[in-house]
Amino acid sequence: MQSKCKIIFIVVSASLLALANRIGNGGNVVVCKDSIEVLDFYEASTSIKFPGNSQHLDYQAIAEDVFKRLKLVSPKLSSQYLERLKTIVQEVEFKDGVALTDVKDSFHAFKPEDKNCEVKQIAIRKEDIGPKEKRFVIDKKLWDRLDSRNKSALIVHEIVYEHLNKLGETTSVKARKLVVYVYDDQINGKEFWNLVKTLKISIYPD
Fold it and tell me: In what order do the strands lie in the sheet with 136-139?
């Protein structure tokens, strides 16, 4: 019986990943009655300390600041992400009046027990696009509820996840962990590269 259950689980998991790859990848938010935040930050809970000046900037400035700080631990990665930041917003369609398909690539370990809270798909990166299509679709209603820091984190998440997906990652688990770390005000080279090594991500020190 255990063997049968294991086989069923493997088949279902493979099917979900195949579906996710056809749709693309994306980002999630945790939505409650009076609050909303990206899944990356929700999972980190109170363990992360964000730089104090972020509330005074718009989301693009915050994202730029995050990637500039990354230069302390990886100049090459910092430069790569800053270049992508310049173009990614032009590839986003903010879509109103829709509910995005759940990509099922987040594999989060927990969610709020409050029945009024749920994990929702806020962004999808499409694998295949036509000549006049945009690469990313973002749920505008959910986007408008995010503060600047969370908006920036969603964009940073999409850039990091896009990179890791090119390296073979098919879930957003590792991308979320990297996003949380680069937002931490205690970022340092040794910890960053230990994290990369622990996550078995094929990026290397400059």
Answer: 36-38, 25-31, 118-125, 136-139, 92-95
As a whole number of angstroms, the distance between CA 111 and CA 66 comes to 26
- 3-state helix, strand, coil split of the chain in percent (to 5) is 55, 15, 35
> Considering the entire predicted model, what is its pTM?
0.85
**Domain range list for the chain:** 2-198
Q: Which of 16, 5, 33 is nearest to 171 (CA)?
A: 16
pLDDT in tens, 69-81: 999 999 999 999 9
Helix pair 75-88, 59-69: axis angle to 10 deg: 160
Residues sharing a CB contact under 8 Å with residue 190, sequence separation 6 or more, in sequence order: none
Q: Which single residue is written with the structure tokens 């994990």? A: 119
